[in-house]
Specification:
Elements: H1 17-21, H2 44-70, E1 76-83, H3 89-95, E2 105-109, H4 115-118, H5 124-128, E3 136-140, H6 149-152, H7 158-177, E4 180-188, H8 191-203, H9 214-219, H10 222-236, E5 243-247, H11 251-267, H12 280-288
Parallel strand pairs: 1-3, 1-4, 2-3, 4-5
Helix pairs in contact: 2-11
The structure holds adenosine monophosphate and magnesium ion (MG).
Adenosine monophosphate binds near residues 111, 113, 141 and 145.
GO molecular function: kinase activity; phosphotransferase activity, phosphate group as acceptor
Protein name: Polyphosphate kinase
InterPro entries: P-loop_NTPase, PPK2-rel_1, PPK2-related
C-alpha cells in the first residue's frame, strides 16, 4: 500500500493553529502578543524533533500535490508571507517550505519594483509569479506591499492605494475560483525583538547580507506600519482567503504554526497518489526480461 502521510495534529497542540490564528474582526494589531505561542503546549526544547517530524508530513503531502498535477489535477497552493524585516519570512522559506521537493515549489520575493514593473499595474509582477498546477507558490512579501510600504511611504496618492483593498479581494477571489488555496500569514515581531535581530545581523558576518541600513529607518515608521497592517487585516481577510496572525518573537513557534497551516491546507485537498496509467503487473513482467 502507498504511504499516506499522517496529517493529524500532533498532541502538543490543543487546537488546529488555524482556529486560533485566523484573524478575527476587532483584533487590534497593537495588541498582538508577539511572544505568545497560541495552542502549543510544548516548549522550545520540544520543537526541534516535532518540526522534523512535521516537515516530513508536509513533504509527503506536497509531493502528492505535485504528483497529482502530473495526472491532471490543476489545484495549487499559494503561501503569502507578509511581515516587517526580521519577522522570519526567510526562515519559513528555508526551514518549512525548504523541506519540500523543489520541483513543486515556486518561490518569489518582491522587493522595490523595478522600472519595468512600475510601468505596469502592481498586480502584473504578482500574476507572473503565481504557482502553476500542483505547485506551492511562496510569496516572500507580496501584492500587500502595495498597500503597506506604498501607503506608509506615500508612493501613490491615497485614492490609488485606497482602491487596492477591493482590487486585491477580487484578485484573490479569482485565484480561489481557479483552484488556488491561499494561505496568508501576517508575521508579527515586536520592536524590541526586531532590534535584537537587527543587532545580530550587524554582529555576524554570515548575516550581513540580510542587513539593509534602511531597515533602521523603517523602525521610526512602526506606528504607520501598524496602521497599514490593521487596514490589510480588516479589509482583506475574507472567508475565501483569510489572514492568519502569526506571533513571531519565537521563531520555533512561527515555524511550527505555519507548517501546520500548510499541512492543513494540503490535507483539505484530499490528495491521493495518482493511480498508474499502465498495467503494473504487466510492466513488472516486462522489466524482468528487459
Ligand atoms: P527585503 O524583503 O528585505 O529584500 O526588502 C524588500 C524591500 O522592498 C522592503 O523594504 C519592502 O517594503 C520593499 N518593497 C516591496 N514591494 C514594494 C512595493 N511594491 N513598493 C515599494 N516598496 C516595496
Ligand atoms: Mg530586508
Amino acid at each position: 500500500m502507498a504511504r499516506t502521510p499522517d496529517a493529524d495534529l500532533p498532541s502538543l497542540w490543543t487546537h488546529e493553529p488555524h482556529d486560533l490564528l485566523e484573524f478575527r474582526a476587532g483584533t487590534a494589531v497593537a495588541d498582538i502578543e508577539t511572544a505568545s505561542t497560541p495552542g502549543f503546549t510544548g516548549k522550545k526544547k520540544d520543537s526541534g524533533d516535532l518540526q522534523d517530524e512535521r516537515n516530513e508530513v508536509f513533504a509527503d503531502l506536497q509531493e502528492m500535490l505535485y504528483a497529482g498535477s502530473r495526472a491532471g489535477d490543476t489545484r495549487k497552493i499559494l503561501l503569502v508571507l507578509q511581515g516587517m524585516d526580521t519577522a522570519g519570512k526567510g526562515g519559513i522559506v528555508k526551514h518549512v517550505v525548504g523541506a519540500g521537493n523543489p520541483q513543486g515549489i515556486r518561490y518569489s520575493s518582491f522587493g522595490k519594483p523595478t522600472e519595468e514593473e512600475l510601468a505596469h499595474d502592481y498586480l502584473w509582477r504578482i500574476r507572473k509569479a503565481l504557482p502553476p498546477a500542483g505547485h506551492i507558490g511562496v510569496f516572500d512579501r507580496s501584492h500587500y506591499e502595495d498597500v503597506l510600504a506604498v501607503r506608509v511611504h506615500d508612493l501613490v496618492p491615497p485614492e490609488v492605494w485606497g482602491r487596492r483593498y477591493d482590487e486585491i479581494n477580487a484578485f484573490e477571489r479569482e485565484l480561489v475560483d481557479d483552484g488556488t488555496t491561499i494561505v496568508k500569514c501576517a508575521m508579527f515581531v515586536s520592536l524590541d525583538e526586531q532590534k535584537k535581530r537587527l543587532a545580530k545581523r550587524l554582529r555576524r558576518p554570515d548575516k550581513f547580507w540580510k542587513f539593509n541600513p534602511a531597515d533602521i529607518d523603517e523602525r521610526e515608521l512602526w506606528p504607520k506600519y501598524q496602521e497599514a497592517y490593521q487596514a490589510v487585516l480588516d479589509r482583506t481577510s475574507t472567508e475565501y482567503a483569510p489572514w492568519h496572525v502569526i506571533p513571531c518573537d519565537r521563531k520555533w513557534y512561527s515555524r511550527l504554526a505555519i507548517t501546520e497551516l500548510l499541512i492543513e491546507a494540503l490535507d483539505g485537498l484530499d490528495l491521493a497518489w495518482p493511480p498508474p496509467d499502465f498495467d503494473v503487473k504487466a510492466e513488472k513482467r516486462r522489466l524482468k526480461t528487459a
